[in-house]
Amino acid sequence: MTNRFARRRSGALGYLTPLLVVLAVWVYGPLVFTVVLSVLDWDGSGTPTFAGMDNFAELFARPEFPAALLHTVVLVACVLPFATVVPMSLAIMLWKQPGRASSVYRALLFLPVVLAPVATALAWQFVLNPLGGVLDETLGLLGLGPVDWLGDPATALPTIAVITAEKVIGLNVLLYGAALDGIDRQSLAAASLDGATEWQTTRHVVVPQLWPITGLLVGLCVVLAGQWAFTNVAVLTQGAPNGTTDNVYYRLYTYGFTFFDNGLASAAAVVLIVLLGLPLAIRALLRRRAGTVVS
Amino acid sequence: MITPRGPWRRAGRHGLLGLACFVLLFPVLWALSGSFKRPDDLFAADPLPSPVSLDNYQVAIEQFPLPRLLLNTLITAAGVTAGDLVIATLAAYALVRLRFRGSAALLATIVVALLIPAQTLIIPQFLLVARLHWLDSYPGLIMPQLGGCALAVLLLRQNIRAIPDELFAAAQLDGANSLRTLWHVVLPLLWPALGAVAILQFITTWNEYLWPMLAAPTPQHTTIQMGLTLFTNTEGSNPGPLLAAAMLATLPVVAVYLVAARRITAAFLHSGLR
Asked: What is the interface pTM, i.e. ipTM, of the complex?
């Protein structure tokens, strides 16, 4: 930049102050405070006492926390296809057929993303009701069921995952669409000149160019799937049956606002942040090392 | 060259896309139809209610302060949206046009803020809001949710970056300072993006469930999503009015979305996420 110095004196701080204040007060301040709370024994009003690692010890001594961690992993695994393969296929179909119809499809697929989560959860509850709900009634006509989708420990977690996936598909169709817009059209022309069929072109030319965005969406799904499922768990199952739909995010909330145990909830938050942050930190570190090797 | 299989393939695509839309939207459509059924027909197999009945809506409105809940939600969502847009526009402009030390670090800070799970921050946020005596109040509902402005910053940053350099050079030649440039060059070009981000933010805040549940637990002061859950606890055995209330809680948002659907999807399509 030629006028770098002229720009430096332009008072960027004034423009950034509101953002910095908001992030400090409502995001990073609370983050630090969570870490502090995790080593305290404090109910929020009395005198706090230092608890060392007691909260963490208690956390892992309780059977439900490791179980919630495991269920979070299962949930992520169940949501993952709906964050990748399904929206990728839909986005490719939309991309092959540009025009009015595809923008209508796109708008309809995105609609579940904007629907109120509490309302969609209640709508699913109505459809899945084992006593006369339309899904079990339909299955009954085929001589199947009835299945108590949200009440049976075997089906409850996959059902929560499917309800959650509804919101993920529409968003990721759009993000795949953005990636497809950037695809090198020349590579497609070259492939069809070489006599590749449409399927071969899609499989060997288009899909490989979508790997970077797929990696990003997998990462987002890992980080966010539990949060996306939060409302569904809170409204539909509260972690039941037998804690099978419980996940780390819901557990955190339960420790804090049902048990009113700030220390335990904050310790769980710290564990979660470390688990989510570790891969990011490792990646940043590897990238930095790779950078020094190159330069 | 059109192969003979072309039309079939095209029909197959329409079939699959239509099926996907149907599967995704079926539960809500079925619930919408159910909300207009008479209590006795609630679980009837007819896809459309016959006869159409408004009983469920009448019960829902009588049993619960729905107008008050909707008003609270509207004020909260409007407040958060307005605050976010101001904060995000100023920050995005500085990030793109002004050079300052640590801009890369700030960008990383914003992205990380987006990824920190809300559930890990609720206890300190709650303690702070309680200490400020903001529980069950609009500031208590609005202020902490401003922390979610990171996505708006990133989306607006992409859009400001797309503004050609020549326009800024011209403004500089005219002797415009950075604030005048923001007002006269950036904002006029940013309206479409601001509109999309505003609608998205409004919808997100309207739908927010976790924070209102903590910060405003009383029926008179909370938002519609939390109100719905309170309704679930009292009317759980009576699903008809509950469905009616659920539809009232989400239909305003659907209306806003349908008006601007193309603009919103375009904002993501051109978000530069490649």
From this structure: 0.88
The phi-psi region of residue B164 (left if phi > 0; otherwise alpha if psi is between -120 and 50; otherwise beta) is: beta
Closest to B144 in 3D by CA, of A260, A201, A22: A22
Chain A residues in contact with B20 (beta carbon < 8 A): 86, 90, 109, 169
What does the block give as tokens for B143? 């202020």
Q: How many CB atoms are located within 10 Å of the residue B192 CB? A: 12
- B interface test, pick of A1, A19, A124 with most B CB neighbours within 10 Å: A19
SS3 B2: coil
CA dihedral angle for residue B227, residue A136, residue A242, residue A66, rounded to 10 degrees? -90
Please report the beta strands in B169-261, taking only residues with DSSP state E, as ranges in sequence order.
Answer: none
In the CATH hierarchy, which top-level class contains the domain B58-271? mainly alpha
**A22 vs B228: CB contact, 8 Å cut-off?**
no
Domain range list for chain B: 58-271
Nearest to B253 among A12, A114, A280 (CB): A114
CA distance B241 to chain A (A): 11
CB contact under 8 A, B87 and A19: yes
Looking at residue A143, its pLDDT comes to 85
Instruction: Report how far residue A135's alpha carbon sits from residue A137's, in angstroms, rounded to the nearest whole number.
Output: 5
Tens of pLDDT along B178-228? 888 999 999 999 988 898 899 989 999 999 999 999 999 988 899 999 998
Cα of B209 to nearest chain A Cα, Å: 7
Alpha carbon distance A209, B273 (integer Å): 13
Q: Contact, B199 vs B183, CB < 8 A? A: no
Return the half-sphere exposure (C-beta side, CA atoms, 13 A cut-off) of residue A262. Answer: 24
Chain B residue numbers touching A25 (CB-CB < 8 A): 128, 147
Give the integer Cα–Cα distance in Å for B81 and B199. Answer: 8
Cβ separation B14–A227 shorter than 8 A = no
> ∠ CA B264-B265-B266 to the nearest 5 degrees?
90
Classify residue B119 by its DSSP letter. G
Count residue pairs from A and B with Cβ separation < 8 A: 276
Query: For A87, which residue in chain B has the nearest alpha carbon?
Result: B20
Indicate the residue of A116, A178, A252 with minimum beta-carbon distance to B225.
A116
CA distance A83 to A195: 32
Mutate to test the interface with B, among A27, A42, A125 (most CBs of B within 10 A): A27
What number of CA atoms fall less than 13 Å from residue A49's CA on the CB side?
4
> How many angstroms separate the CA atoms of B130 and B144, rounded?
12
The answer to whether residue A111 neighbours chain B at the CB level (below 8 Å) is yes
pLDDT tens for each residue of B34-93: 999 887 778 877 788 878 888 889 888 888 888 899 999 999 999 999 999 999 999 999
